[in-house]
Write a sequence for this structure.
């Protein structure tokens, strides 16, 4: 009897899951590319006869706000190609074209707040990797590399491609031109690619997709994509690309004379096959890089700063490893930068990125010059991954830092199981990694680190759990290690219902638990605890956001902790409770803001923290934003206040000429840091930068300029 009952309940549930999974596929699910030997004039007008002869698709379905409903505005897409380029034409019809939200023009714009159209190409058709291209009605460009079925997204990748748009009373229209040399794909005579499209209509907060429109999916999940057929005869695409650079400018440091700066170097990129690319760099320089956002550290642990240098950003995902964010065997900021942030010259380097069959390969070797007491050093990273099953992988990683008479290496293996068809359409991920370090001049030369994780990232229930471990002797000198000698147990769950009886709300968010529990790996005593309970959070249909949180924390200090100048927290175990509120208005409006407020206990005292950010989008050419952070800490050993200010002016003449002015100050360093950066793109792949960095010492009654740098840099792209 029990068996019959289980079957009677399981059959309809199974049918429901299968139907929901099938319902994500909208017919037609295939689009065919039309061959036209002539070049397309890129102007957004879609006037060539090939656009009319090509097959059009228009079956888009809502993901938001009304899942499964037809799109309220008509969207059409067609694809054509010739021997060198892929062209994608988009017709975004709109009954209220004068209400389009299009406020940005610069490269790599924040497209989440705009009317936009997105394209993703799975060129290997492996349901894992893809290239994302985005534009808005102003013709702004954004691109990214996608790996692991959307779980890794490298937004810093800049491909060589272009798009032009046009706005009329009927809507807005776009023409994408993507050279085949920008992509990697297999060498078959006839290509079969995954492809998917997404359109966002911001004034309605409507999101529509061609395929995979379930709320448990994202466009970046290429396993949900449709198919692109009809591309033939491009299997012999090769590319030799030379990108020399020249720098001219002046630099003045405090108490020193002004010095001129003239330099040159370049990169050579060779597309060995359509799947494998070799990069060579000589005398690499990063003069165009924007300054880091300075942070006042009120914790006991290292701060993480993002990589901003283009050479290391391209292909960054190839070197990702499953030890997690806080324990990374490879952290590219260790190369060419000292611990104090001073630049160490890079003599030369080589990198190989690509895919052969089911194997993905990333290899990099960089040689840095001698700098003061730091000897010339070779940094090498090797990463290999093998696709297994439908969306899963296994891999190996090796990283080395070689100096005369000294060696530090890290080597390890990881695995990654992923499925997007659990219970019909749910995503489930399980994986882990094990790594060992070796340091030649240490008494204990080796140390281990490992991680096991599980993730269920879906719309109604979002759950994850992790176990991390890093031994006291684990020493990744070319990596990032937030803390040592620990084990960490983490789990969090979010429940996100969408009640129809609350007409103003898009969804509610409840967090029953979220904790990170750290213990000493050797003694198993408490190191830290961070836990959070969210009794209420929500997003409204108009785009507002709110959440309230209660946090319980603990810290076990083995030594006295000097948190601020002259203020010490004695060693011991501390438990304390904190409360938090967050609120943000919809970022698609010309004026929007964000408020963060946290208060409560802090070790053996109190701490109150404010964060305010406001943005004014004057028009599509100019936006102004500012932020203020204040921490007021009251401890038995003394009280102090930390104030941090930041401001940014973004300017764009057109999508190929834009710049920014960024300023920051805090009352700890008492130094204003100003960074002006202008970028002109004469043709895709060629860049001119003009950069001014200025530091101003605000201590004392008279402010004075300290470090000043004025530089211009031209990077020109030649295709041989």
């Amino acid at each position: 009897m029990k068996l019959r009952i289980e079957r009677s309940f399981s059959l309809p549930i199974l049918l429901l899951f299968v139907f929901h999974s099938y319902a994500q596929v909208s017919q037609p699910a295939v689009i065919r590319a039309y061959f036209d030997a002539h070049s397309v004039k890129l102007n957004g007008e879609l006037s060539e006869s090939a656009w009319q002869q090509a097959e059009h698709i228009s079956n888009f379905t809502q993901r938001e706000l009304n899942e499964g409903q037809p799109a309220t505005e008509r969207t059409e897409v067609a694809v054509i190609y010739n021997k060198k380029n892929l062209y994608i034409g988009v017709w975004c019809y709109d009954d209220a074209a004068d209400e389009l939200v299009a406020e940005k023009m610069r490269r790599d714009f924040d497209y989440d707040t705009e009317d936009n159209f997105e394209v993703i190409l799975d060129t290997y058709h492996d349901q894992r990797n893809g290239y994302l291209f985005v534009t808005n009605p102003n013709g702004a460009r954004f691109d990214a590399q996608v790996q692991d079925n959307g779980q890794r997204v490298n937004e810093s990748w800049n491909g060589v491609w272009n798009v032009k748009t046009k706005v009329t009373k009927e809507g807005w229209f776009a023409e994408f031109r993507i050279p085949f040399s920008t992509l990697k794909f297999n060498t078959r005579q006839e290509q079969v690619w995954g492809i998917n499209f997404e359109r966002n209509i911001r004034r309605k907060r409507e999101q529509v997709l061609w395929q995979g429109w379930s709320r448990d999916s994202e466009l970046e999940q290429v396993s949900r994509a449709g198919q692109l057929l009809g591309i033939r005869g491009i299997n012999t695409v090769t590319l030799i690309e030379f990108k020399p650079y020249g720098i001219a400018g002046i630099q003045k440091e405090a108490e020193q004379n002004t010095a001129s700066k003239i330099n040159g170097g370049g990169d050579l990129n060779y597309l060995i096959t359509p799947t494998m690319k070799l990069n060579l760099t000589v005398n690499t320089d990063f003069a165009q890089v924007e300054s880091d956002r300075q942070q006042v550290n009120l914790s006991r642990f290292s701060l993480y700063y993002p990589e901003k240098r283009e050479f290391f950003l391209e292909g960054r995902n190839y070197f990702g490893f499953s030890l997690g964010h806080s324990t990374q065997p490879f952290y590219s900021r260790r190369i060419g930068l000292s611990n104090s942030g001073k630049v160490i010259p890079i003599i030369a380097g080589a990198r190989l990125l690509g895919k052969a069959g089911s194997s993905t390969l990333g290899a990099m070797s960089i040689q840095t010059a001698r700098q003061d007491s730091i000897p010339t050093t070779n940094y090498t990273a090797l990463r290999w991954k093998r696709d297994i099953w439908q969306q899963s992988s296994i891999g190996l990683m090796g990283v080395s830092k070689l100096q005369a008479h000294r060696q530090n290496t890290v080597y390890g293996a990881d695995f990654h199981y992923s499925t997007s068809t659990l219970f019909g359409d749910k995503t489930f991920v399980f994986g882990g990694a094990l790594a060992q370090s070796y340091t030649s001049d240490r008494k204990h030369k080796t140390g281990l680190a490992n991680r096991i994780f599980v993730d269920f990232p879906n719309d109604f229930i979002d759950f994850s759990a992790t176990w991390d471990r890093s031994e006291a002797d684990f020493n990744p000198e070319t990596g990032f290690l937030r803390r040592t000698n620990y084990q960490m147990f983490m789990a969090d769950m979010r429940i996100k219902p969408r009640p129809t009886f609350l007409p103003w709300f898009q969804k509610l968010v409840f967090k029953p638990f979220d904790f990170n529990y750290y213990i000493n790996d050797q003694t198993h005593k408490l190191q830290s605890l961070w836990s959070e309970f969210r009794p209420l959070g929500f997003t409204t249909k108009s785009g507002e956001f709110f959440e309230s949180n209660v946090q319980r924390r603990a810290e076990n200090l083995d030594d006295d902790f000097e948190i601020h100048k002259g203020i010490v927290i004695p060693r011991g175990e501390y438990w304390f409770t904190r409360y938090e509120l967050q609120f943000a208005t919809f970022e698609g409006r010309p004026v929007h803001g964000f408020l963060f407020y946290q208060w409560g206990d802090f070790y053996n005292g109190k701490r109150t923290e404010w964060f305010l950010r406001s943005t004014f989008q004057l028009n599509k050419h100019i936006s102004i934003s500012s932020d203020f952070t204040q921490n007021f800490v009251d401890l038995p050993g003394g009280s102090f206040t930390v104030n941090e200010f930041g401001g940014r002016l973004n300017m764009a003449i057109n999508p190929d000429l834009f710049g920014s002015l960024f300023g920051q100050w805090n009352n700890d360093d008492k130094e204003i840091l100003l960074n002006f950066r202008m970028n002109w793109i004469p043709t895709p792949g060629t860049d001119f930068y003009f950069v001014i960095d200025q530091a101003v010492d605000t201590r004392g009654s008279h402010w004075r300029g300290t470090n000043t740098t004025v530089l211009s840099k031209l990077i020109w792209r030649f295709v041989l």
